[in-house]
Amino acid sequence: MSLWDRLKGRTQRADPANEDLSQEVKRSISESLELIKLHVAFSGKGVYVASAGAEGKLMDAARAFESAHRSYPALPMLHYAWACARSCGAVQDGENGDGKPR
Fold it and tell me: How many whole angstroms separate alpha carbon 25 and alpha carbon 61?
């Protein structure tokens, strides 16, 4: 099962932790995942990141995951999602930080 499926609450077995999430947090997670899907692309040459930086859309997604993680600190998946979104958002648009396309 993919991380996206687990974050959106689609599990193969009942996961009581996902049932405890508030509707607001579930909506925030869904919106954040959509932002990531729109601004991160994968190809045979690597990963392309758009709208990165401190004020980029990926940092908006990271802040939403941070808020969810602070609301539900016992869920390691939210911490992992927050860290991954921050990592993606920290690179320069279209680069991996060393000037080469991702």
Answer: 12
- CB of 48 within 8 A of CB of 101? yes
The residues, ordered by sequence, that sit 6+ positions from 96 with a Cβ below 8 Å of its Cβ are 46, 47, 49, 102
**Sequence-distant contacts of 10-18: CB under 8 A, at least 24 apart:** 17/72, 17/74, 17/75
Note the maximum CA span of the chain. Answer: 44
pTM of the model: 0.68
Q: Are 71 and 80 in contact (CB under 8 A)?
A: no
Report pLDDT digits (tens) over 5-64.
766 666 655 454 555 888 999 999 999 999 888 888 888 887 788 887 888 888 899 999
Q: What are the extents of the domains in the chain?
A: 3-89
d(CA 62, CA 46): 21
